[in-house]
Amino acid sequence: MYHVSRPDGTVGQPLAGHNQVPGIMEVMFCRVGSPVLQGVDYASLSLNLWALDQEHRQHLGAFILRQEVLKDGFHRDLVIKVKFGESIEDLQTCQLLIKHYIQQDFFVDPELASLQERNITEAVMVSENYNIEVPNYLSKESEVLIYAREDSQCIDCFQAFLPVHYRYHGPQSKDGETFIVVNNLDLLMYCDQEFPILKSWAQSEVAAPCALKNKDICKWNNMKYKSIYKNVTLRVPVGLTTHIPLVCSVTLLITMLCVTLILVAVYGHFSL
Fold first, then answer.
1. N or C end of the chain, less CB within 10 A?
2. Residue 98 confidence (pLDDT)
3. If we measure between CA atoms, which residue out of 68, 97, 63, 95 comes closest to residue 82?
4. How many whole angstroms separate alpha carbon 232 and alpha carbon 68?
5. Residue 119, strand partner residues
6. Strand partners, 188
7. According to the 3-state scheme, what is the secondary structure of 175-190?
8. Three-class HEC string of the chain
9. Confidence of residue 19 (pLDDT cuts 50, 70, 90)
């Protein structure tokens, strides 16, 4: 086990493993010929430093993803921002595609076509027989593709936007609220040219349309990423089971009153 000598002559942590090294730059300040490094195999030390530097670069180069839900109430905006940790020239030749799995607690805004025309989002629904009327306990998970755009306010950044709405949730016996954890997503990337540095983060290939208005199929790379938030949890208000008798009684009463008024209006009109 070797110790690291800092520029001021003090001795750092033992160089037994990379998790114990204070930092790559601090290790690089080791003075050749220092008494604490006499007898060190400098070839092995250089190899270890190169490995540490490669791991450090790999950590910096990963995609950093932030998923958050904006607004209050039952109508929310799902916003996804992606930052590439290492600057790459000609990255503008690449496209990012978000493959999201919307759980049964939500439904995607049915006016996607209108939102596309207004240049608000570039999302397309993949799932068929998509019903926005059913409650969450009768619904199924849906799949949506969101083509991310470059963020003009951030270098090597992309962002995607998707309006979603809560489905009706059944009443509960207590608390009057339930919690929803937003699903994780797949981050897909397609580039017109090859970037060797990106291959280390590619997990698999996925077939998907090349663009929103291009039905040709491209092979996208499913990329690894680091998420800022481990879980995005939302709190949704729901009814209480103790209120069911009252709600049913009031609903029945109002229904009977409306039917009576309609009958009176109809028969009163004919009697005149």
1. C
2. 95
3. 63
4. 7
5. none
6. 97, 222
7. CCEEEEECCCEEEEEE
8. CEEEECCCCCEEEEECCCCCCCCHHHHHCCCCCCHHHCCCCHHHHHHHHHHHHHHHHHHHHCEEEEEEEECCCCEEEEEEEEEECCCCCCHHHEEEEEEEEECCCEEECCCHHHHHHCCCCCEEECCCCCCCCCCHHHCCCEEEEEECEECCCCCCEEEEEEEEEECCCCCECCCCEEEEECCCEEEEEEECCCCHHHHCCEEEEEEEEEECCEEEEEEEEEECEEECCCCCEEEEECCEHHHHHHHHHHHHHHHHHHHHHHHHHHHHHHHC
9. very low
Among 164, 185, 10, residue whose Cα is nearest residue 74: 164
Q: What is the 3-state secondary structure (H, E, C) of 194-210?
A: CCHHHHCCEEEEEEEEE
| Closest residue by Cα to residue 115 from 150, 160, 81, 49 | 160
Computed over every residue of the chain, the mean pLDDT equals 77
- What is this structure's pTM? 0.67
Residue type, 179: F
Q: How many CB atoms lie within 10 A of CB 233?
A: 11
Sorted by sequence, the CB contacts under 8 Å of residue 110 that are 6+ apart come out as: 132
Amino acid (1-letter code) at residue 94:
C
Render pLDDT for 212-237 as a digit per residue (tens, 0 to 9): 888 889 999 999 898 888 888 888 88
User: In terms of C-beta density within 10 A (0-12 exposed, 13-18 middle, 19 or more buried), how is residue 160 classed?
Assistant: buried
Strands across the sheet containing 202-211: 123-125, 142-147, 94-102, 185-191, 214-223, 202-211
